[in-house]
Amino acid sequence: MQNNTPFSWEYFKEAPLVGIIRGLDMETILWIAQVYREAGLSTLEVTMNTPDAAMIISTLRKEFPELNIGAGTVCSPSDLQIALEARSQFIVTPILDEEVIKNCVAQNIPIFPGAFTPTEIYKAWSLGASAVKVFPATQLGPQYIKDILGPLNEIKLMPTGGVSKDNIKSFFQAGAYGAGLGGSLFNKTLIGNGDYEGLKNHFKSFKKELEGLLPE
After folding, report:
1. Which residues pair with 45 in a beta bridge?
2. How confident is the model over 25-58, as pLDDT tens digits?
3. Best CA proximity match to 110, nearest among 94, 126, 88, 95
4. Which residues are catalytic?
5. Is residue 216 scored above 90 in pLDDT?
């Protein structure tokens, strides 16, 4: 029986982190998803340039109905169609594609489009973005988030790229609504060693950094 549940904003707001999975095989991803859920995190993105991405997304949707499972690196309407056919619950893009945003808004699918400059960020938001993925945030840092939110304080920003356990608190203190994390969250050593408890504690440590910083 297919699970067609919509994206859970309730789960996301409890731990507004999007874990970005890229280039891993199905078996490893299923293992990670189990640990992720047990650690109290809820939102996983599988990038469309991961081999068999559509199959992985579809399988995760069936196996983990309590997680938010979405597609990332969606760069075109054709990518979007494949992602939605796999029953992605949300969409993330690295760039600002108006057609992708408008299609998601029309279908009530949460969309986190990538943007970099104030103009791009404002345009993405005005097109109906659920939150704007500030990408790459590597060199920009938390101060950029604070600076953008000065004049554009109603926009929800989700820095992605360069967010780590060392600086995630600073990003949220600067006003970030959420954050996207790849390599810093999915520790290669822990995953390579099959260290279930170690990875779970690693995930929990990110969530702990957000204590006291999220809206009640």
Report:
1. 20, 70
2. 999 999 999 999 999 999 999 999 999 999 999 9
3. 88
4. 45, 133
5. no
